[in-house]
Amino acid sequence: RLGAPGRPGLDGLWTAFMGPAAAGDLTGDGRPDLAMIRSRDRAVVIAAGTSAGIGSDIVAWSLPAWPPGGWQSPNTYPFNVLPLSGGSHQWLVIGQETAEIGSIGYAGAVIVARGTQAGVAEATVLHQDSPGIKGHAEFADSFGTSVGGTAPGPV
User: Fold this and answer.
1) Which residue from 11, 24, 33, 62 could staple onto 90, CB 3.0 to 4.6 Å apart?
2) Where are the alpha helices (DSSP H) in 11-138?
3) What is d(CA 126, CA 138) in angstroms, rounded to the nearest whole number?
4) Is the pLDDT of residue 27 over 60?
């Protein structure tokens, strides 16, 4: 159980986090890892899974300086860990449906970051004006309102 006495690094874990959490194998070791957003700095924090459950080895990853105006309440961001490329590492996916794209308000966007042995790789921001994404950004599109599923091929 997370936050249980005697678990170094995890005592009071839930009081330091807010918003969504997602589980999946980001590190590619066959064990589920737990990704959460930390309250004080909006960093994504990954607690690696071990054979005994969630371990005390916690890695923080700063979110990109996006969306304009910075990260607000992370409670509103769709957040998932998904098998997008068919490899052993899953991907961290965060939606931000109110993101401004250029001068287009509420167009929305999604951050994707491939899992690595150390946590996650550098993130990519995708929106409807990104190459390979169908359509184009329009006011109130809310792209990224929901993040889930799998990709049909390599990403």
Assistant:
1) 24
2) none
3) 14
4) yes
- Closest by CA to 19, choosing from 3, 38, 4, is 38
Rg (CA), the chain: 16
Residue that is written with structure tokens 């899992």 in the block? 115
How many whole angstroms separate alpha carbon 124 and alpha carbon 55? 28
Select the more confidently predicted residue: 151 or 114: 114
Q: Are 44 and 35 in contact (CB under 8 A)?
A: yes
CA distance linking residue 112 with residue 95, whole number of Å: 9
Cα 137 from Cα 55, distance rounded (Å) = 41
* Encoded tokens for 11: 């005592």
What is the pTM for the complete model shown? 0.76
Q: Sign of torsion, CA 71 74 78 82?
A: positive
pLDDT at 40: 67
Both tokens assigned to 50:
């071990």
**Which tokens is 145 given?**
């309102």
Distance between CA 22 and CA 93 in Å, rounded? Answer: 10
